[in-house]
Structure formats: structure tokens, C-alpha cells
């Protein structure tokens, strides 16, 4: 979290970085925390003092030091509670139980139709069943959705891919579950999880870009997630990418035409592959990926073209946000080797010379990561000094026995 110019301004997720560090590294001294996170010793002393007071961190045994008194190790309080995370998709809901250190204790999947008339009550029933089976103190529920959310605290959702408009997800679930519920865009939840447990511990400005059914982007600036005026920041899948003379633009789920996602989201890539007869009328993205893996040149070209379009669009986002690093995630990274042949030259060529070395990190993907990201909404809420979670964050803090 430091650069050549000195400490980078930090947002409201930094104390969570301490919790994440203890969770991933185990018991750690204050001096090691300061070095790992680029914090001053005084800051670490103050932050950890507050975490101890909140019952999230405890002092453990001492270890020998190179000079002076022995260093005391700090560790997480293991029984401080768990969070439930749910990722809503067009055909299922993935649910995980997550400990404070990010460990996924359990994972389940439920069939789900978000277009049904009782979709929101049905979601409440799914989560109520999961909560009933918990034997630990539940701190709250985090829900990630593929769409815009007005605020974590409110949880009103506009998600065209789910058929939801002004859906009262947060209010409905809170009434059904009787527990704190925070709701956000699914890619924003991944960005928060990276801040807690991943690459975000070392960077205060980064992008999390997902490729798969859609194309999404979580933006972290000065250590905090940037959500925009109405919770819709980062919808890069809806950047228009058509040429001026295009006459047959592909439709997008948002209702517009010619969006980036309409070309390189899963449905767009499959449509192109069918049109070029690489796969049959019932062929799927896995079918196309198998063709590329076995050497089909047209299949590989389709992925490379998608990578080129992503690279050009992402270069514009880089110029706007100026992140330290880009993290690529999502179901689509399984075929990244084929995307990359088009992405790298297009991306680097489209960047200003001063930006051409920005690193792009591709992370392995599992379905659990979406739901684990949703759980991070709860796990970061005790440090919500910006008030993003409103009353729901306060309720989580109360369940932790904190102020």
C-alpha cells in the first residue's frame, strides 16, 4: 500500500485488510503487519487496539525479537461469528458460509428462476433454510447480484439479466430473515473480497474485471469501492463499441444494441461461433472452448477477437481510473489463453506509453468466489466508516458486540 511517493491514501476497508492478513497468514506481530500493509507502527497500534476492543482480534503468545522486549503475536478470535454470502444468477443461487478469515466453511447451490412472480420471496426461503442449519453466530447476510444496486444499505436492484427493475431485494430479505442484509453488485463484492483477502491488500487503486455471462468491473480508488451516484459504476459491459457504419447491431440484455457485452459476453461469443459454423445450433461456450483447445483455428480466432475488443475497451477505463493493477476473474478465465492472444496486443497498443506496463493478473476461478465476495459485504461492514451499509452495518456491529 505504499509507492515511490509515500503512503497511498486509504479508505474504509483498511482495518479489514488487517483482519484479512491475520486470516491468511495466521498469528502475526504488529511490526509484521506494518511491513506487510505499508502502515506506520502508530497506525497499526491504533487499528489493532480498536480490533481487540471489538473482540475481533486477540493477543497471543510472545515470540523472541532481535532486540528489546519480545513481540506479541495477534490472531483472529475464532468464535467471533460467520457471514452468509449468496450470489444470484439467472438460473441458480450459490450460498456459502464464511468465517472471519475468509475460509469457506460450507457451500451449496439451489435452482432458481429470478423471472418468477415469487422470485424474491423464494430467495428469502432459500436463505432462511441455510440460516436454520447454522450452528454459529450469524453476523449477517451478503447478497451479490448482476446489476445496479442503489446502495448496500437499501438494496433496491435493477438487473436486466434477471428481469428485475426496482426490485426490493434488501427490504424483502430483511423482513423474511430478521437479520442484517447487505446487497451490492456482484463484481463490487469481488473487489471487496480482494481488498480483504487478495491482491487488494497490497494496492489501494485497482480494477476487478470479470468475463463470463457478462462483462463487469469493480473499481477501488484510495482503498474504497467506487459505486457512483446510483450504485451503477463499473458497468463496462455496456460501453458501446459498434462502428459508425454498422447496420446489424447485436442486442444487449440492457435493452440497447452494440454493447461490449453483446459481442463478448458468453451469449455473444456463442452467437458468433454459431454464425461461423464452428459449433452447431445447440453448441455452447464449453463446446467452443473444446474446439479451441483441440486446435480449431476459427474457434481460437473468435476468442482472440473477443480479447481484442476487451483490451480496447479496458484501455479506456485505465485512462479514466489510473489503477495500479487489473485483476481478471470470472467463468471466462478458463479460456483466457485464447482470449490473451488478442487482448495483450490490443490492450497495450491502446494505452498511453506511461500506462503500458500496468500489470494484469488472471486469477483462477471457482463458483464459490462470487458468493464469498457477497459474504465480504458483511465482513467489511464493521469498518464502514463511510456509512455505505447504513443501519445494516450498525446491526452487524451490534451482533459482534461492538459499537
TrEMBL record:
The HTH crp-type domain extends over 20-75
Which domain of life does this protein belong to?
Answer: Bacteria
Gene3D superfamilies to which the protein is assigned, alphabetical: 3.30.420.40, Winged helix-like DNA-binding domain superfamily/Winged helix DNA-binding domain
Which PROSITE patterns does the record associate with it? ROK
* SMART domains named in the record: HTH_CRP (SM00419)
Q: Pfam families, from UniProt?
A: MarR_2, ROK
Q: Which family does it belong to?
A: Belongs to the ROK (NagC/XylR) family.
What is this protein called in UniProt?
A: ROK family transcriptional regulator
Taxonomic source organism: Kribbella sancticallisti
